[in-house]
Amino acid sequence: MPKLKLPVPPMPGRPAPKRPGKTYGPQTPREHGREAGTSAIGWIDERTSLSGGARWMMFRKVPKGTNWFYTLGSATMFAFLAQAVTGVFLAMYYDPSATGAYDSIRNINNEVFLGEFVHGMHKWGSSVMVILVFLHMGRTFFFGAYKYPRELNWVIGVVLLILTMTMSFTGYLLPFDQRSYWATIVGVNINGTGPFVGPYLSDFLRAGPDFGATTLSRFYAIHMMLVPGAIAALMGFHLYLVAKLGTTAPPWLRAKSPEKLREEKVAR
Fold it and tell me: Which of 17, 60, 219, 256 is the most exposed place for a label (fewest CB within 10 A)?
């Protein structure tokens, strides 16, 4: 019996033939732009494999009963990002000196385009971030989300709360008006009453034994570089643990007992 000949394989690198009367590829400028963006993202992902990590972070199982209380952490992160962005724009015009700080704030509010708007967002956004942090910590406590195996995440959250209060305290002095000046002196003196480390902490915040011109530079460095960097690093680790360990169900929802599960399987 004669053997059938195998079909000739196509030439390598030659595209498949196009159907007649049918258009292929992008036609409008919008389609060209969409294809260019997709190609650029694909080119980056092929070399970095970032889509796997993004898929691991965003697509995961959530417990039954998840509600709007679970968005308080994301809202706090958004508030921190808003503070970071507005703080960068304010730092472009701010003068961290004892003689120029107050005048630079007046210049931002009165002369700079949208300066008062950005300054207001940064000023009131700090209060919003503090409120959201406390609400998020309260939700975590009352929902029992600090228990095993999420104890480390709870500890990191407590440290983030302390750093948020530190950033608010150090930022309060930066306008360098009468209210912020005397309020900061009171706050530093209160820190000095702490046991053991209190006096050393006060000297560190004042940048010396007395409240002087270098105190403002010390507060500006802590507020602008030290605390935000620590918050960003701990927040990243916090999100990693949330994605790895998952979230807990509300305490009023209990898991079904094995007997009920067995009855459902038999009924099916």
Answer: 17
CA dist., res. 136 & res. 156, Å (int): 13
Query: What pLDDT is attached to residue 24?
Result: 60
Torsion 201-204-208-213 (CA) sign:
negative
C-alpha dihedral (192, 193, 195, 200), degrees to nearest 10: 10
Helix axis angle for 115-142 and 101-110, nearest 10°, is: 100
Instruction: Tell me whether residue 161 is in a domain.
Output: yes
pLDDT (tens digit, 9 = 90+) per residue, 42-81? 788 878 888 888 888 888 788 888 889 999 999 999 999 9
Calpha distance 225→76 (Å, rounded): 19
**Quick check: 86 and 121 in contact, CB under 8 A?**
yes
Alpha-carbon span 74 to 80, nearest angstrom: 10
Q: Return mean pLDDT, the chain.
A: 86
Low-confidence ranges of the chain (pLDDT < 50): none
- Tell me, yes or no, whether 215 lies in a domain: yes
